[in-house]
Structure formats: C-alpha cells, structure tokens
Write a structure and sequence with these properties.
about 210 residues; mainly alpha
Length: about 210
C-alpha cells in the first residue's frame, strides 16, 4: 500500500501554503529531509543530486553529509519515515477496533482511500522510488520489501480476525485492490477511485467471510 501519509507536524504537499516561512524554522536534519521529499517526489530519487537537495534545504553539501553519510542513506531514511506513517495507521485502527477484524480492514481501506488525492498530485513514494532503484539489494528497496511484507502479515491477521475462511488469500485480494487503486489514481484511469475501492474491499470481505450483504 502506497498512499503517502504526512509525517507528524509536516505537510509535504508541493503546493503547501506557508512553506517558505515554515521550513527555515525546522532543525537542519528535518529541513534536509523536507527538501529531499520535495525533490524525490517531483523528479525521482535517481535524478536528484545531493547539491540540489542542499540548495533546496538552504544548506551545504558538507552539512548534509554530517547528517546523512550518503544520498542512499538519505533515501532510506525518508522511506523509513513514510513506512512508519503506514505502521501508525495500522496501529490506530487496531487500537480503535481491538476485537473487530472487519472494522480494522475497512479502517485501513478508508485510510488509503483518504490518501488517494495526495497520490494523484505526487505519485506513490514506494512505486516511484523502486523505479529509480534498479539494484534489488539497494537498502531502500530492501526496506520497501520489508515494509510490504509486514503490512501483508498484519492485513492477513485482520482478515483472520474478521472470520475469513482463507485469510492469506483474502489479504492478497485486498492488497491487489489497495495497490491497484493507488496506481489507478496516479494514472487517472478510473473515476471515483476511493468509493470504488471501499465498495470492492467490503464485497471481498463479505464473500470471504460468508457475511450477508452490508
């Protein structure tokens, strides 16, 4: 799942109002991450150089390297923060519905659906990053793989709690829906993506659990 949740206290939209006055007040490390996010999402991780990130952050390459030993380390840290936003969303729905797997799955789906407009504007951080990181052993690609595997395990557990007959198959179907919705939103191939996504996940759960129509 690749919606791009904002980091706490940070609005990462390229057109965010007040950025020119807000960003200079950030600590240097946060300012560098903010600049990297702007450029990585706009131009892709492969195309963006360290000097461009330093310029965007209004700092120097030397200062950047004090916080991040390499550009690869910066990419990895940025994606780690993005992944943490998803983990937090899963934590939230599990805490809100501790004994209701169906509500957990639908809560995750709603979280993804609500993030789709951001995907349409900026693209998916994970998909865009993988495209610019051809080496399968790159630390950032390995981080993405671990993130996706963890999400799938958590979604499977939710489907099991919801009463799915084959939780692994159900979570796979729902993952296809969640991922596909984000790609469709990014390329503009389907209308009303959020509504269609939530209806499709609900129908998948109904079929997998033998539940009556909701």
């Amino acid at each position: 799942m690749t919606s791009s949740p904002s980091r706490p206290g940070r609005d990462s939209s390229p057109s965010r109002p007040g950025r020119d006055t807000r960003v200079p007040r950030l600590p240097p490390r946060e300012r560098i991450l903010d600049a990297a996010e702007e450029l990585f999402l706009r131009d892709g991780v492969k195309a963006v150089g360290v000097q461009a990130i330093a310029d965007q952050a209004k700092t120097t390459k030397m200062a950047l390297y004090r916080h991040f030993a390499t550009k690869d380390a910066l990419i990895e840290e940025w994606l780690r923060i993005v992944a943490a936003g998803y983990a937090s969303a899963f934590d939230t729905v599990e805490a809100e519905h501790p004994d209701d797997g169906r509500a957990q799955v639908l809560g995750v789906t709603r979280f993804i659906a609500e993030g789709l407009p951001d995907i349409a504007r900026r693209g998916c951080p994970f998909v865009n990053s993988v495209a610019g990181l051809p080496d399968p052993e790159h630390p950032a690609r390995r981080l993405i793989e671990r993130h996706k595997a963890t999400q799938r395990r958590r979604l499977t557990a939710m489907c099991d709690k919801a009463g799915a007959t084959v939780p692994g198959d159900t979570s796979a179907e729902i993952t296809f829906l969640l991922e596909g919705a984000q790609i469709s939103m990014q390329n503009g191939s389907v209308d009303r993506v959020g509504d269609r996504l939530q209806a499709a996940v609900t129908a998948t759960l109904d079929r997998a659990t033998g539940a009556p129509d909701h």
